[in-house]
Design goal:
This protein is of the alpha+beta class. It has helices spanning 23-38, 56-63, 97-108, 121-131, 153-157, 167-171, 195-206, 236-241, 249-266, and strands at 44-47, 53-54, 72-75, 77-78, 86-87, 93-96, 135-136, 189-190, 213-217, 225-229. The strands form four sheets. A four-stranded mixed β-sheet has the order 1-6-3-7. It has a two-stranded antiparallel ribbon with strand order 2-8. A two-stranded antiparallel sheet has the order 4-5.
Length: 267
């Protein structure tokens, strides 16, 4: 969504000017457009900035057990200004189909939410959601690690990078975790990501693979990635043939071939 058409993206021109001062206005017009043209096409609508990087597969994983016909709001929950909290605009937030309906038909058309384009977009959305009975959902993983992030990865992950007097400690709805425990293995979004860094993240997430390691979703409490070794071998058949612990060079060579075959079959 933009103020101009760009078929290379493509982008959709909305009747609102550019600039941070018009962000609330652009957000309202964007959801009006979605309601008018795509309401029956999708169950969930994600709003993010153009410098937000999103892992859509993890977003689907988060939403898969939730009902889009309920008024729900997902994201990085902040606590000032709104009693039930509001979701960070930079990290991005998700509205269910029912939430989109309420936002447009009641919040905008019945003028229950702020009508001018002023104010902070994410705060205004939070105030509006509270008025409309749209419920914020705890979007952390089962290990209470955040999935939506208002900063770039290195700022969140590097221990001590975020100073204790940073506003995020005061704003975060839940106790803030930084360093390696900051972020879920199923992280969904990061903010303030430069264009070049987006290429790097795309490569690291979708292309780089440690040889011999496969990652699968875990059902364990901390919802972490279960790393499965592909080099499990048994030597029981050899022990029945060879009483000695030493193996010949041919035996070792055969082990190597079989292990490689196992890896090739499983990747």
């Amino acid at each position: 969504m933009s103020s101009a058409v760009d078929n290379r993206l493509p982008s959709i021109a909305l009747p609102v000017g550019e600039g941070r001062q018009n962000l609330w206005g652009k957000t309202k017009e964007a959801f009006r457009y979605v309601y008018k043209h795509h309401l029956e096409d999708y169950d969930w609508v994600y709003k993010g900035d153009d410098d937000s990087y999103v892992i859509l597969e993890n977003l689907r994983w988060l939403l898969k057990d939730h009902d889009p016909n309920k008024p729900l709001l997902f994201g990085r929950q902040f606590k000032p200004f709104v009693k039930q909290g509001y979701m960070s605009g930079g990290a991005g937030y998700v509205l269910s189909k029912e939430a989109v309906k309420r936002f447009v038909t009641r919040g905008l058309e019945k003028k229950l939410c702020r009508q001018d384009n002023g104010g902070m977009e994410d705060v205004e959305m939070g105030k509006c959601a509270q008025k409309l009975g749209i419920r914020p959902v705890d979007s952390r993983d089962k290990g209470t690690r955040e999935t939506f992030h208002p900063f770039k990865p290195e700022h969140m992950i590097v221990p001590g990078y975020i100073p204790k007097d940073n506003w995020l400690y005061e704003y975060n709805y839940y106790p803030l975790k930084t360093g390696p425990e900051c972020c879920s293995d199923f992280a969904i979004s990061f903010h303030y990501v430069e264009p070049n860094q987006m290429y790097v993240m795309e490569y690291l997430i979708y292309h780089l693979r440690p040889y011999g390691i496969d990652s699968i979703p875990s059902t364990s409490k901390n919802n972490s990635i279960a790393a499965t070794s592909l080099f499990r071998k048994t030597y029981q058949d050899k022990k029945s043939k060879h009483q000695s612990k030493k193996q010949t060079t041919n035996d070792l060579h055969a082990d190597t071939i079989r292990a490689k075959g196992d890896v090739d079959n499983m990747i």
